[in-house]
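Q: Here's a chain of 160 amino acids. Please give me its 3D structure as C-alpha cells.
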Amino acid sequence: MAAPRTLHAAVGLGTLAVAVAMAFGAWGLKSDAGYAGVGPNFLPWLVSVALALCGLGLLREAYSGGFRMMSEPSGAEHGFWPGFAWVSAGILLNATLITHIGFILSCALCFALAVRGLKGAEGSASDTPGVWIKDTLVGVAIAAPVYWMFTKGLGISLPG
C-alpha cells in the first residue's frame, strides 16, 4: 500500500470524526418508534453510517495514491470575497430577521442576497432595481411553498 497523501488522509479522518460525533449524538436520542415505525434517532444513525462509509472511502483513496482522477481546478486562483460577504450577509440576516418579518420574507431576502453574491462571483452582477425585485420574487416563490409544506403538510410551526 502506498504512503497516504497527508491532506487527503486528513479529509478522510475528519469525515470519520464527524461520523463518530453524529453517532455519539444519535446514541443519546430516544429510539421509540413513531407512527412510521422509526424513531427520532433513525436519521442521525443513517447519516452517521453514510459519513463513516464516505470517510473510509476517502481514506482508501488517500492510502492508494490519492485522488488520481481529479481534474485541474477551474475558476479564479483566489476566492471572491465580495460574493462571500453577500452570501454571509444573507444567511445572517435570515437568522436575525426570521422571527421579526417571517419565514417567507427572510428567506426571500436571503435568496436575493445570495444570488447577488453568486452572480458577482461569475461577473454578471447587476444592481438595477428590476434585478433585485426579480430575485426577491423568485425567493418568495421558493419560500412560500416550503412554508406551506412545513406548516400545513408536516404541522411544523414556522414564523409567519
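Q: Can you summarize the key feature?
A: The chain has a mean pLDDT of 85.
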